[in-house]
Amino acid sequence: MFVKRLLSGIVLIFGLGFSFAIGGYLLSAVLMIISLIGYCELVKALCSETERRELNGPDNIAFASIILYYLSVTFTDDRTFLILVIGGFMLLELVWFVLRFPKYSTDRVVRTVFSVIYCPVMLSFIYMIRELEGREFLIWIVLITSWGCDTLAYCSGMLLGRHHPFKQLSPKKSTEGCIGGIIGSALIGFLFGFFYVKRFLPVPYVEWRLALICGVGALMGMVGDLAASGIKRNNNIKDFGKLIPGHGGIMDRFDSMILCAPAAYILTYLLITVS
């Protein structure tokens, strides 16, 4: 199992890293595919045990909306079209609910809307970071604040972990591991800014700004990880899927990135792009 997990993890890192480096249409397409799979995993997980976990009418509307959303993010700078896509998605879901009542419950519509926002929309901030000024350098903070933090938190927890405040959500997560992940991510962000980004972006104290971004992003990534654990526990499932050997599904591997991406984008925009 360890070897399988390690190999699939290496493939993921190289595949995602390549799309990060190329950016543009490739990155958008990769994120859209990840989002569509993640949506399927999440909406199925949110169904109760008595419901049939199969895709249906509301999901078809969601699929079309996710594709249109990524097309609008990729091909136009006019956010009006983006708002139209999101608004149209909400309207169509409610129209479908009314026309097919009582086949679909309000809970089913709410789960569909939540799943679209939680995975596809949040992950799209990765592409938005890639489109900011200095995009070819700043995109890497997403990996630092998500998967880098996961690794550092795991190592810190194994070596120093004594206190476990999240026993109901994730019994193995420790306070020491969380602190180690945040501090370690901030340190990597500082070093990344000092030795690399500083040479290309003439932003004062960019290394300290990146340290702050990576530290806060790491914290939000942990919240995303714990939130995903809570969803799985509430719905009595071990993993969201089985797509990635040794890791589970897309949602199991990208749970921390889902929240750290928007946090990283907002802080990057405020602290670096508009500074």
Q: Could you walk me through the main structural features you see in this protein, from its secondary elements to its overall organization?
A:
Helices cover 75% and strands 0% of the residues. With 275 residues, it is an all-alpha fold. It has one domain. The chain is globular, with a radius of gyration of 19 Å.
Characteristic key phrases:
single chain; about 280 residues; mainly alpha; about 0% strand; globular
What's the quick description here?
By secondary structure, the chain is mainly alpha-helical. It has ten helices and no strands. The relative contact order is 0.14.
Query: What is the count of helical runs?
Result: 10
Please provide the ordered H/E string of secondary-structure elements. HHHHHHHHHH
The outline comes out as globular
Oligomeric composition of the shown chains: single chain
Distance between the termini: 47 Å
Mean pLDDT: 86
Are there runs of 5+ residues with pLDDT below 50, and where? none
Helix content: over 70%
Radius of gyration, taken over Cα atoms and rounded to an integer in Å: 19 Å
Major sheet: size, sense and barrel closure? none
Beta content comes to under 5%
Q: Structurally, how many domains make up the residues? A: 1
Total DSSP E strands = 0
Structural class: mainly alpha
